[in-house]
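Example 445.
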Amino acid sequence: MTIKFDYKNVENFVGSHELSEIQAMVKTADSQLRNGTGSGSDYLGWVNLPTDYDKEEFTRIKEAAKKIQDQSEILVVIGIGGSYLGAKAAIDFLNHSFYNEQSETKTKIYFAGNSISSSYLNDLIHLIGDKDFSVNVISKSGTTTEPALAFRVFKELLIKKYGEEGANSRIYSTTDANRGALYEETVAKNWERFVVPDSVGGRFSVLTAVGLLPIAVSGVDIERLMDGAQSAQNAYTDSDLSKNDAYTYAALRRILYDKGFTTEILANWEPSMQYISEWWKQLFGESEGKNQKGIYPSSVNYSTDLHSMGQYIQDGRRDLLETVIKLDNPVSNLSVPKTEEDGDGLGYLESMTVDEINTKAFQGVVLAHVDGGVPNMAVHIEKQDAFNLGELIYFFEIAVGISGYLFGINPFNQEGVEDYKRNMFALLGKPGYEERGKELRNRLN
Ligand code: PA5
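Predicted structure in complex with 5-phosphoarabinonic acid:
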């Protein structure tokens, strides 16, 4: 394993006997997960996905990515939640910070269908202008409002620009294998089709075509990503906590939760990692937040947010635990420029690199937060590459599976997400929601 889990900074908060005490529960959770005896066991396809995936489709993903690069200056990736966060996280982390602005970039990638903003859609239409573009529409159900709406908009634009036939050759659809509105349309129009496997829920789908196609379009080696996930799949099989970092992470969170640490902050020290946190928030929030239980997942980007959230984390309500994802060796590094005069007082840093300063800041912040009563765990990522990211993705996925069973909930459903949708549909006048619509309008008036 190249990623490393360090939990020495929870020592003041969790005694080693407590890990021994939770070991039996972890063994049970492991058996539920591995043997499919826990709730939600129809959705365990992600557990062996890094080794057990559709190799024929994987080859088609690489071919389609190449075709998109040849055919289009812009790829619009339409999806929401699990249908976009993993791809966005990987593309941001594994490419140049200004990927879309670089002249070498073959195909710029823009995401749509993850909000209901007409300004955003209009601005993207404007940005596309007379440039060639393709669309990757990603929706397991095909009926999620945000992506369905955006897809209508960009499908219309494609047809206006290229005619029906031309549009059909520029739509890449990732959806359910057998059913659903998008599936039906995809088959009818003969769009290139990729599958969201039945056994893999949205938030676990980054290593399926859902994430892999857009990630491959950005030029990332998706085989290395799968290799990394495979390395983690092999590493995190032992139910013995002393031999399994991902399970230890899950166990420590559970112990801390019982001590009142009910909000977890995922902190990163690289702007390119912001969306890893967004992906992680969905993974943990949607998996654990059930039956009025679960750790509330939040995130900060350091050092940026030390200047806005640092005060609260240091000295606010003491229900916070912090997990840092720290990149140990960034792809590039910069030395501190030397100057004759020392007007800014930074002369003492002249022998250092910017990354060394970042690392010292990380170390100092960890200690300050621990001293302030915030237990701290760190996941160290050796390098900014696809292999490390594959490991990290799997580390969190397997941890949340175990964690869900430690909380005694079904980590693989998301029934709570439906409640707001029912209200929204009722207020929008969707057929079948008439009664609820009346009731809600009365309440609003
Ligand atoms: O994890 C989930 O289930 C959700 O975030 C879904 O991925 C999201 O709502 C999108 O659903 P769909 O792919 O059906 O459009």
